[in-house]
Design brief:
mainly alpha; 4 helices
C-alpha cells in the first residue's frame, strides 16, 4: 500500500504541475481529492488494513493529501495571477474583475 500511495502522490503532483488552466487544475483536484478521488478512496481503504498498520498508513495518506492540497493551492495562485488586458485608447492595464461591473447597464448620473 505504501508503494501505491507514493505512486498516487507522484502522479498527482506531476499532473498538477502540468496544468495550464484553472479548469484543468480543478479536474485534477477532483480526480485525486474529490468524493470519489483516488486519495479519498485510499482513506476509506484504511478500514481493510490490519489495526496495527493503520496509524503508519494513515499518516502516509494524510501526508500525501496535504502535499497534493498544497500543490493545488500553489498552482491555483500561479494560474490566477493578475492578467493584463489591452483596452483601445488606454493600452495595457491590469485585468478588471468584470463580474462586479455591468457594462451594459446605463450609468446613474448624480444631480
Amino acid at each position: 500500500m505504501e508503494e501505491e500511495l507514493a505512486r498516487l502522490r507522484e502522479a498527482a503532483l506531476a499532473e498538477i504541475a502540468a496544468c495550464g488552466t484553472e479548469a484543468e487544475l480543478e479536474a485534477v483536484r477532483v480526480r485525486y481529492l474529490g468524493r470519489k478521488g483516488s486519495l479519498t478512496e485510499a482513506v476509506r481503504g484504511l478500514g481493510r488494513v490490519p489495526p496495527a498498520e493503520r496509524p503508519a498508513l494513515g499518516a502516509l495518506v494524510n501526508q500525501a493529501k496535504e502535499a497534493v492540497e498544497a500543490a493545488v493551492a500553489v498552482s491555483l495562485k500561479r494560474l490566477a495571477a493578475p492578467r493584463r488586458v489591452f483596452i483601445f485608447g488606454i493600452g495595457s492595464v491590469p485585468h478588471l474583475d468584470t463580474s462586479i461591473i455591468d457594462m451594459l447597464r446605463p450609468s446613474i448620473r448624480a444631480c
